[in-house]
Every structure is written in structure tokens, then in C-alpha cells.
Design a protein that fits this description.
This protein is mainly α. It is built from 13 helices and no strands. It has one domain. Keywords: Cell membrane, Membrane, Transmembrane, Transmembrane helix, Transport.
Amino acid sequence: MTGEAAPRAIRFELSAASLLRLAVFLIAAWLVIRLWPVILVFIVALLIMETLNPAVAWLELRKVRRGLGIAILFSGVFLGAILLLTLTIPSVVAQAAALFEREPVLRAGLADRLSHYHLSAPFAEWLRGLRYGAPGNTMGATAFAYSLRLFEIAAYGLSAIFLALYMMIDRDRLRGGLYALVPRTHHIRLSRIMLNLETIIGAYIRGQLVTCLLIGAFTFILLTACGVENAMALAVFAAVADVLPYIGAILSIVPAVLAALAHSPTTAVIVLLAMLAYEEFESRVLVPGIYGKALRLPSSVVFFSLMVGGTLMGILGALLALPVAATIMMLIEELRVDLPGERELVADVALRARDDLQEEEYERRTEGVAALEAAAIAVEISVDRRNQDLHPGITP
């Protein structure tokens, strides 16, 4: 009879380098968690800067000094924002308060209309039995908490605006410092990434502003023409909700239709059909025309990105999901990352050859040149290449 084999001991040994990497990762994760509000301010400042940079460049082409162009642009945006808030906020607040006060009456009227139909009768009963949490003594504490939150958001927003202003003023020095930290062999690739990032962010933010303003104006005109009360508040809500692709369409339509249904079923049908027609026009005509080829994201990637962003960070995550996804796709393309299921094509070989030629030209032109001047040369070479790609028949 043979004796049983002794159990084998399994030992896990970590090298000093592995322990160091783990410590660095944990410290970095802790810093990200602790400094997350500051990181968000920096991200928003980048979004603002990349959105306004094309306008500043347009002014520079017309012989306006960069500092003066930035001052003109920020002053115009600031005055426009004050004018818009002055004209809309009092009306929106008043109409929102009126909606809140009339909510029980509107809900009862809607429930009465729905109770006449067999299919909607259960929903009518649910509306009649709907009860909110007891307001009482918690209302003041809730209002105070929301006031503090709004004040905090406003403070972070102003910080992001001023940070974007300083970054735009010190653009050349910041760019020179960034290029000084990166090896020269990667400067051309870095300049292309920065140009593509500016295109993605600028197109996304400008597109969001245009589509939100258009649906807000359309909703206000439609509800006013149909005689629906509180059209301004509902239009502002539709404009804010339209920031979220796909989901925003539903969020913008439902309140407008419910408000119109309280007026009359015919009005509700008209509002529903008009809003659906506009949403179709926006998705088929406006969005492709405004965003163009800047994002280049398939619908499946858009939907998945929105789910991930919304799950991780809520509304803010949904807002940042699309530019982040487009940036990741762009980085994979620009860094020539070989994906597991991809095979190198002839076009990829040609692109790598063009990259090598540009890097050789950059090395030749920047020999003995400081990082600040080298950054400008890298941007010039990348802009020339982008112009060649956009207009193949034109040589620089």
C-alpha cells in the first residue's frame, strides 16, 4: 500500500517591480477618486477650449490678434448667456411653478380622459391613486440641499470657464511644455491626435448646441400655436433633454404630449405627430449634417457608449460618452493599433509609409529647434496632411 502524496504548497511571489507597479496604480486610483471634481473641471475646460478654438482661429485668419480674438469671443458668449438667461429664466421659473401648482388638477383631468377607454383605465386609476412623499418638514431641508448642490455646480462651472480662458491664452506655452515631455519621434502623431481631438470635441459640442436650440424653438412655437400653457418651460425641458441621443427624444416628447392632452385629445395628437416628425427630421437630416464625419461611430457603439456612460456617471457620463468613444476609436486608428481580428491591408501599409516620411521631414526641420517652435512645425505638417486628405487634388 502506497502512502498518500504530500500536498503541494503553491507559493505566489511578487517581484519588487510588480509591487512598485501595484503601489503606483493604487496611489493613482486614490488620487483620481479624491481629485475627481478637479478632473471633471479640467475635462469641461478642455471641451470649452476645443469648442471655441475654431472661432478664435477664424478671427486670427482675419488679422485679429489672438488675445483680442479671445477677449471678443468670451465677451460675446458672456453677454449672450446673460441676455438669454434674463429673457428665459423668469418665465421658465414662473411657468414651472404654475405647472407644479396645477399638477393635481392636470393629473385629475388626464385620469378622467383616460378612464373613458378600456385599455387606459388601469393607468387612469394609477394616476388617481398616485401620492407623493410627505413634504412637511423635509421640504426646507431638501430645498437647502439642492441650493448647495446648485451653488457647487455653478462654482465648478465658473472654474472651468476661467481655466479654459487661461489655457487658450497660454496655448503656445502649454503646447510647448507638452511636446517637451513627449519624445520627438512621437510629435507628429501627437499633433495629429490633438487636431482630431479638436475636431471631435468641437463638432460634438457645437452640434449639441444647435440641435438643442432648434428643438427648443420648435417645441415653443408648436405648443404656443396649439394654445398649450407653459410652453416656455416645456420647450426648455425639451432642449435640455435633447442632449441625450435616442433617450432625449422620448423625454422631450412625453411632457409636451401630456400637457397637450390636458388641453384636448386633438391637440395631443397634433403635438405628438409634429414632435415625431421633427425628431425624424433631426435624426435623418440635422444630425448627419451638423456632426458630419467627425464622430464616425456606428449605432451599436453609440448605444453601448450611452449605457456605459449613464451607468457609471449618470447624466454627465451620458453627455461625455460619445466624444470619449469617438476619441478611443480615433486613437486606435491614429496609433495604428493592430486589433486581434484585423489583418494589415495595403492601405495600412501606405499610411505607415506616409507616417515615416512625415516623421523624417519633422526631424529634418526641427533639428536644433526648441520644443515651442518644434510644436508649431508639427502642427503645420499635420494641418497640411489633413488638408491633403480633405482635398486630394490640392498640393500645399
